[in-house]
Each structure stands twice: as structure tokens, then as C-alpha cells.
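Researcher: Let's continue the batch. This sequence belongs to UvrABC system protein C, and it's 394 residues. Same format as the previous ones, please.
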Amino acid sequence: MDAKWHGQKEFGFGADPFNPFAARNVEVVGALKTNDLRDHVMQSCPRVPGVYGMLDRKGQLIYVGKSKSLRSRLLSYFADSNSDEKGGRIIQNARAIQWETQPSEFASLLREQQLIRLYSPRWNVQGVPKRQRPVYLCLGRQPAAYFFLAAIPPENCVAIEGPFYGASRMRNAVDALNKVFKLRDCSQKQTFYFAEQLSLFEIDHRPGCLRLEVGTCLGPCAAACTRNDYDQIVNAAESYVDGFNDEPLTVIREQMENAAANRQYELASRALLTQKSLEYVHRKLKRLAKVRREFTFIYAVNGYDGCNTWYLIHCGEVAAVMAAPKNPQEYAAAKSTLSHWQALASNRLDRGHGAYPHTLQIVSQWFRKHKDQMQRTFAPEQAGRKYYRKSLTA
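Model: Same format as before. Here are the C-alpha cells for UvrABC system protein C:
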């Protein structure tokens, strides 16, 4: 690193939950001048898969990316044709670059997502033209669950799905979903009174908004419904998130048709926008539901450096990883882990949402783009000799 560059003293990306091998080294180059930084990359960066991070003059991580060829990707930032694009602006703010090789492109994808979630580099989510911040559709927050959006889903939700893009479109969809299912959308500071709750005195509970009066909320704040009534609606909403319920679309379409028939064109126009938002959400929910139902298997991925990996894909999510056994001894040592994987995969009632629910989108897109990779998958109970030998073939 250039001796004149003064950044943070310690570099690295931290622990990798998807790496079953020894921690991988992180290489760092730095310079005050862009041309010098490019020369350092040319001299030392390899043409292998991996992740990289851009650091500013204070040593802060400002951008994380991945590539199946680190050297080619990093050098592209310095191209004259890229000077006015996103990459050019990022490199203008960078004083150092660090990278960590990965055994495969799939491993790079998982590592990149994990790092972005961990560090939230500002150039990954801000200052990048046409970049939309992902949000998750959540159903939760007791004592009266409802739909809401979150960049990082909280724990103890009834249902979570995503990520989705387009905050305005998603806010419109969430507003419609809460109204169609008659779920509340008020603050957590609101006090809730269910009809079966006993009180020493007869109290006339007033609703916190007009939605009860217009028929778009069950009114759990005004004792207008029982907890069981509300929970039944939450169950129907959960079915929608699971991709098995298209009631919201049907309701909005009827509203639009009625408004158009009555020449209420402004109302029909708003209903049309809401319909488009819900159609986007419904299409994605159906696609992700299909992945959750069908994608439970072991995915064998070869590493360019011999670090071959088995990923347990459970309900479309990466649930666990292990080093692919290379001989009968290693396979025998892995049998207890494989037995656990088999028990987990055999649970047909589980819909996922494990330790890494955010990996669902990566898995879905990966196998949609690389359909041939399905040939490298197999059930945990099939992880016998012919399968670990198969994992060693290119």
C-alpha cells in the first residue's frame, strides 16, 4: 500500500457464515492518486471470483461489490468510458480497495449480500442513480398484527417475504392490503381493546381513526372485534403472503370496475394504480412461494481452488453449508451433519424463514438464470458415494 495513504489500520470483512473452510485472506491496496491505485490493482488482483470493498480517505467502507473475475471488474472502474457513470464516481471517492477471493460465483453472491446487510455502505444504497432500496413485506407486531414494510425485518413476525423494490409502489400496496383484510395500520402506541376483554366499568372505546366507520378495519382499538375474529383475518393475510390467496386483487379490480361504471374516474384511476402495485407484489409472492415449495435439496458447488462446498437449500433459503467430502473418511465424518440436514429437509410443513431468509432471492434468481445448475442438486438422503464423487467433477 502507498505509504502516503493514511486509512484505517485494520482491514477485512469479518466472519463469513457461508464459508465452511479456513478464513480467507483479504488483500488491500491504497494510493492517493487514482492512477497509482489502478496500477496496484493490475499488479496484485487475481482473475478469480470474489468480493471487493471501496474505502474512502477515512478508511470507511463506502461500497461493496462482487465479480466472477475480480481483476477485470476492478479495472473497469478506472476506464475512461466509466468516468461519468456510477463506477467512476465511486472510484473518485475511493483511496483504497480491499478484496477477498471466493471459491465460486455463487459464494461471491452470498458474501456480497451478507456484507451489504452488515455494513450498509452508503454507495450501495445512496448516491447511486436509479438504485432502489430493497424492503421486505412483513405481517406482524402484536397484539394486532398488520402489514408493514421494513428494510431489515424484525423478529417474531407472522410472515415475511421479499425483498421488494420501489418504496412508493410498496407503500401503496401495503395500504391497500391492510384495508382489504381490515387490519389496523395505526401506531404501536395505540391501546387495543378486544371485545372479550372484561372491564369493571362500562367504557365506550372510541376508535383511533375513521377506518372502523368506513368499514376498512375490524377496530381492535375500540373493542369492535374479538381477538379470535382478528386472528382469523391475520391467518387469511398470512395465506396471501404465502402466495395462496388473491383476494386483494379481486377486491381492487371490482372497485376499479365499479368506479369506472359510475363515471368516478378519479377513484378508478387511483384503484388502477393500486391494482398495478398489488399485481407486482402478487407475481413475486407466487414466484417465491413456488421456490419455497420446490427448492429443498443439497447444492454441490465446485471451487476454483478446491474448496468444494455443499449448500443445504431449505425452502428456497441457504440453511447451512459444509465442505464437500472428498473421500470415504470425510464422508463418514459428515454423516451426522447429513442426518440433521435430512431431518430438516423432511419437514414439509416448514416454510423456511430460517437464519438466512434474505438468501431466498439469491437462490431464486440463481437457478432461474442458471437452469443447468439444477443438475448439481440432490436430496440429503442421496448424499452417497456417487454424489460426493459427482461433486468433484467440473
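Researcher: Any comment?
Model: Residues 1-9 have pLDDT under 50 and may be disordered.
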